[in-house]
Amino acid sequence: MAILVDKNTRLLVQGITGAAGGFHASQCRAYGTNVVAGVTPGKGGTFFEGVVPIFDTVQQAVDATGVNASMIFVPPPFAADAILEAADAGVKLVVPITEGIPVRDMLPIRAFLDARGVRMIGPNCPGIITPGQCKIGIMPGHIHKPGRIGVVSRSGTLTYEAVGQLSRLGLGQSTAIGIGGDAIIGTKHIDVLKLFQADPETDAIIMIGEIGGSAEEEACAWAKDNCTKPIVGFIAGATAPPGRRMGHAGAIISGGQGTAEAKFEAMVAAGIHIVRSPAEMGRKLAEVIGHRG
Amino acid sequence: MKIHEFQGKEVLRKHGVPTLRGAAAHTVDGAVAAAQSIGGTVWVVKSQVHAGGRGKGRFIGDVDDAALDLAAAGHDAPGKGGVRVVKSMDDVRLAAKAMLGQRLVTKQTGREGAMVHKVFVEEGCQISKEFYLAILLDRAAGRVVVMASKEGGTEIEEVAAHRPEAIVKEWADPLTGLGSWQARNLAFGLGLSGKAVGNFVKLAQALYRAFLAADCAMLEINPLILTADEQVLPLDAKITFDDNALFRHPEYEAYADPAEEDPQETEAARHELSYVKLDGNIGCLVNGAGLAMATMDIIKFYGEEPANFLDVGGGANKEKVTAAFKIITADPAVKGILVNIFGGIMKCDVIAEGVLAAVLETGLKVPLVVRLEGTNVELGKKIIAESGLRVIAADSMSDAAEKIVAAVRGA
Fold first, then answer.
1. What angle (nearest 5°) sits at the alpha carbon of residue B233, between those of residues B227 and B236?
2. Which of A95, A175, A199, A266 could form a disulfide with A217, with the two C-beta atoms 3.0–4.6 Å apart?
3. What are the backbone dihedrals phi and psi of residue B21, each rounded to the nearest 5 degrees, phi first?
4. Which segments in chain B show pLDDT lower than 50?
């Protein structure tokens, strides 16, 4: 059953009538995701692609269609509000793809979601995919292959890189998650490792980190004593200079904290099989589990 | 987005934080006029550059190379610094003249220094103690943390490394803000007593409110001072704004200082490209921040250094790719270019066309390796192959890195 999303996921798209929201809602449907509703305030009563009902509010969509996950494409000034609306309407999994939400807007969200038992993936993330079953996000579906390797990363294209390497070696994925590049995100590396460890359909894991913060170290500390499945790890940003933000709001080395070297060391200490070249993630994993392509 | 001290204090005043009286000037006469309008008998003339460590900084041309090397390393050096206390109008004039139009070398500017275009003249005051205070996001906690230390004037990184117990911290709950009891904890932690405690609490809470209202990413007051009459005031103010919140503050546009920015980075920002100039010789054009960092890393893995970080973003079009290519080639240090695209939303054929358009427009004077993968990869490869240009095609990240490193070394 992989993790978090599968054939039973009933997806809502918030911002479905926008250019990006519409394009990706369409792509997700083409992949086979069960997109059951859209929300755009003021466009209630119309249909997306002639078949997906659009509602004015998330509550209406939940009541009418049994939504259990939401993909959010609402622009940055209104995105935090959209997350809160979904959580308040009882949606248990929210995936804000939106890039560029101000930190001040994200600060109060955690407590609100926790109080309602809602999991958030992102924001500023590519989303989550269980190959062959459900794609929520902007990743190219065709590079994925159903299988038993879990993939977790902050970034989009670096996740695709790992997935592409695995698929090329004949190694399919149970679930691949891009948790997002922002400083405040809903689901961290440690949370995903826990889910993969508990998932009977995941045999091994690729974990990709980035410079900045201490989320990778935290995940490693947990994995050391609790994760029995083999993990292959890579940290992006070894060449990044301190004090400069590398695209992602979270990717900045400040005050000597969050360096790639410290994170690689934490991985080694946790028994994670590291690769120094991002081109070796797939091959290393195949070697670790004794897979012959 | 970084701003100058005088702008930072303007932001603080706007949000109800008391500051000393001061005015900025870009000419020597302006500085004198500022001092006259402030009145009093003691003033502080401060160089306005985005870098910190100005007091220990030294001016190029004013002191010898040995002193400049010391200043660049953050050590005490002979000569006068970028912040000066003066007691007459003549000295205001002399200080402003020594700073304006000169390059100031500090620990944060590097040896080349930063040009001083403005000075800030502020009233002097009786300092009895100096502290450090900063407000920023604690990512692990997902909360705003207010941290303070008794070691005012010293860089917090140094204190954290050698005397971590000297730093006191309080995490503000997003719902209730920074409580008075939390601000008192900080005040007692700094060893304050009497009237100073209440004054500190008022100031810390005002700073916290300003941090949120102004959408700051970081607010650093170093030093925060206790005056002889027990007032607590910010003597310096270093503010960085949350770039994601700039849409809420159109007034910040006036704070931008093009003289402090790298021209290529400014051009990149205009095209909504994420670009950071680095010191190496291989230019990179990549989609996605994570893959862009990984591309820099793999260049280093094969023995060369990246010339830049460049993320064209997820939804780039042909024009954006062309602009990105031009920015990379404008850097004279670039001896080769690596294009690494994993097409998701972005289609490989669009990238290929953008690269070709840029090459046709600017010419291609250095080796170019292109690695395409993902959506419409075959079409993208075909466009490159049929263009007749000397583009080296690569099949994987490692193949691409090996080829560009070999090409740069062979050239």
1. 115
2. A266
3. -75, 140
4. none
Q: Counting beta carbons within 10 angstroms of the beta carbon of residue A30, is it exposed (0 to 12), middle (13 to 18) or buried (19 or more)? A: exposed
Question: Is A7 near chain B, with CB under 8 Å?
Answer: no
Entry pTM: 0.91
Local structure of A263: helix, strand or coil: helix
Q: Does residue A1 surpass a pLDDT of 70?
A: no
**CA end-to-end span of chain A, whole Å?**
24
Token code pair at residue B395: 């099949």
Please identify which of the residues A144, A248, A273, A291 carries the catalytic annotation.
A248
Residue B110: left if φ>0, alpha if ψ -120 to 50, beta else—which one?
Answer: left
Residue A256 has pLDDT above 80, yes or no: no
Token pair listed for A276: 């120094």
* Tokens linked to B410: 């062979």
Tens digit of each residue's pLDDT (9 = 90 or more) over B289-348: 999 999 999 999 999 999 999 999 876 778 888 899 999 999 999 999 999 999 877 788
A22 is written with which tokens? 């519409």
Work out the percent of chain B whose per-residue pLDDT is above 90.
74
Report the distance separating Cα A279 and Cα A168, nearest Å.
Answer: 12
Six token digits for residue B158 = 């140094």
The answer to whether residues B306 and B299 touch, using CB atoms and an 8 Å cutoff, is: yes
H/E/C letters for each residue in A147-185? EEEEEEECCHHHHHHHHHHHHHCCCCEEEEEECCCCCCC
Both structure tokens of B234: 């910010």
Radius of gyration of chain A (CA): 19
Chain A nearest-CA distance from B396, in A, is: 7
Strand partners, A127: A137, A178
Closest-CA residue of chain A to B248: A77
Q: Which two tokens stand for residue A151?
A: 């993939």
Which of B108, B138, B342 is the best residue to mutate to test the A interface, defined by the most A CB atoms within 10 Å of its own CB?
B342
Of B51, B25, B47, give the one whose Cα is nearest residue B116.
B47
Contacts of A234 in chain B (CB under 8 A): 294
The answer to whether the beta carbons of residues B236 and B54 sit under 8 Å apart is: no
The 3-state DSSP composition of chain B as helix, strand, coil percent (nearest 5) reads: 40, 25, 35
Contact between A238 and B281 under an 8 Å Cβ cutoff? The reply is no
Residues of B in contact with A143 (CB under 8 A): 374
Helix, strand, coil percentages (3-state) for chain A, rounded to 5, are 35, 20, 40
Check residue A241 and report its DSSP letter: P
- Note the pLDDT of residue A106: 97
Taking a C-beta distance cutoff of 8 angstroms, is the pair B236, B5 a contact? yes
Helix (H, G, I), strand (E, B) or coil at B362: helix
| Closest of B139, B8, B227, B202 to residue A250, by C-alpha | B139
Residue B121 tokens read as 């003249």
Residue in the block written with tokens 């007032």 = B231
The SS3 call for residue B307 is coil
* Cβ-defined contact of A157 to B242 (cutoff 8 Å): no
Q: Which residues contact A152 (CB under 8 A, 6 or more apart)?
A: A176, A177, A179, A189, A192, A193, A196, A205, A206, A207, A208
